[in-house]
Amino acid sequence: MESGAGKHWTEEEVKALLSVWSEKNIRKQLHGTLRNKGIFIYIAKRLQELGVCRDWKQCRAKYKNLKYEYRTVKYAHNSGDVTKTMKFFHDLDAILRYEPVTQLAAEENGRCSATETQLNTSPTAESTQ
Fold it and tell me: Is residue 33 within a helix (H) or strand (E), and if so which, with residue range?
């Protein structure tokens, strides 16, 4: 049960993952990257430096689960259900709130090009991270 995504994560391990995930360069690489094995290998190495022994598959599985749970709670809150909650919601909100969203922008010649914008930005948003 040691290998794969089956072993439970401790609170300290999740906090370490969130601290690595919150780094701007990691967030940037994770956003919109479909083939991200290399990023998670790097994250696993960074976690080992912090004393957390997890392989890249476990890191990716936990990343996906946390992101899914966050979006579920966020959707519930946006729908008016504030009873739904999760342990690291505020940490994840700080990480995922500023995730760039690709939008199509019309160019002068009538074509569309993809541009990245950020949601919910405020003057102090990046300075607090």
Answer: none
